[in-house]
Amino acid sequence: MIRQLEGNRPTAEGAYALVVSRYNNLVTKKLLDGAIDTLHRHGVKDDHITVAWVPGAFEIPLAADRLAATGRFAAVCCLGAVIQGATSHHEYINQQVAAGLMNAGLKYGIPVTFGVLTCGTMEQALERAGGIMGNKGDEAVLAAIEMVNLLRTLSESGGK
Prior knowledge:
- By secondary structure, the chain is an alpha/beta fold.
- The chain has one domain: 3-Layer(aba) Sandwich (Rossmann fold).
- The chain contains five helices and six strands, in the order E-H-E-H-E-H-E-H-E-E-H.
- It has helices spanning 25-41, 60-69, 89-108, 122-127, 136-157, and strands at residues 16-21, 49-54, 75-83, 112-119, 129-131, 134-135.
- It starts with 15 loop residues before the first strand and ends with a helix.
């Protein structure tokens, strides 16, 4: 019989950090609201939520890395919005943010989730920040909760 391990989402134990970009705050504030609402729905109290504001998406990985390094958080959820402009700068930003977040998670062994929208237009970003496409802040937190629970299960099972 194949043994399957999965994280679940009914409870979120521990403290959670949210790193949020101020740039495009019309969008990122909605992502933050969705993230906090989801944490509350899963039993996380305000005193177990830390929000760190950064100037823009490019600064998110450094703050996420520092928060993960403290050992105080079960997960770090990163929220931002990079909207394509007339140049290709968004491609460089998106790639570096994604790589930085992945590195932080791997280095500290906790979930560092990617809730950074990479959209072509402001309209697309708003659709993903509580509009018709849902709220990606909510999704980043759900992924974090699931991974925290999966990592706990893996530790308890001894990886067997």
